Amino acid sequence: MTYETLEPISPAEAKEMYLNARKHEVSQSTLDGYHYRLKHFIRWCENVEGLDNMNDLTGRKLQQFKTWRRDDGDLKPITLEGNLDALRVFIRWCESIDAVTEGLHDKIVMPALKKHDEQANGILDGDDADELLPYLRRFKYASRPHVILEILWQTGMRLGALKSIDVDDYDGENKSLLLEHRPDMGTPLKNGEEGERLVALTAETCRVIDDWIDHHRHDVTDDYGREPILTTENGRMQASSIRDAVYFVTRPCFYDADCPVGRDPNECEATDYGHYSKCPPNVSPHDIRRGSITHHLSEDVPEKVVSDRMNVGMDVLDKHYDKRSEQVKMEQRRGYLEDS
Predict the structure, then answer these.
(1) 305: domain range?
(2) What are phi and psi of 201, to 5 degrees?
(3) What is the pTM of this model?
(4) Whether residue 198 is found in the same domain as residue 96
(5) Which pLDDT belongs to residue 119?
(6) How many CB atoms are closer than 10 A to CB 117?
(7) 145 and 262 inside one domain
(8) Beta-carbon count within 10 A of 184 CB
(9) CA-to-CA distance for 279 and 150, rounded, in angstroms?
């Protein structure tokens, strides 16, 4: 498609036509996400560039928009990526209606994300957990991903600790899990014997574990004759499989939440098996640990109790795991002062 054969259309009209075309294909929340992310592009076209015809959009102008959007409010790289990802899908659709030149969407250069941009501050926050866990309890009750999420969120334990648990380590009557350092049998704890401890559970988590064991756990042993809590048909569930399960269920589109970066689940590569980790907003098991610790602290659980329960030093807890805002910390201190 050459410039001479394009059909004129304003950016705002193209956006409304795009949203109207998608409204019967996606949920309203997803549609709202598209609107939110594309409105910045429309604002740039109308108020900055003075571009009133999509036919005039070029790769150079798209680069100018990227620079403007990056500097507009000092966006984080992951947010900028989400905006550009939504724009690229929109531009590709515009190609199909002869609004822009063919292949223009490929000229959008995505930001190169460093590892810390993607994951260093990753966290399953309380609001997301409040959406995900009820969804699992209703629609995936006592499934493998459900029992993984329940244990991780409530205990904040590390992935290696979760993998190490045997059926005999679980005491439903006393509502506890025993964590033991067993390096000679393939399940070491990160802090060795210093990481050994009893972890208290709620009655609700115990019900999920009981039903998992009774109805869904594969009745198998590992290479050492032990009976793991988390199993596949072949034995003890490996760390990579646990991680994949977490990536799978913490994708917002899995539990019917709006995609924070505006991706279309029908076109997103992170919906394909083996690519779940490519979903920008989902989280790893360690991010759940970070979120669990922050949640416990936000609920006024004393730092020493959290430190002992999660097996993390007070200095490390404060530096790497406590993601409470300064406002939340201040209000919690205020509560202690007003109660005294």
Answers:
(1) 293-339
(2) -125, 160
(3) 0.61
(4) no
(5) 40
(6) 17
(7) yes
(8) 8
(9) 21
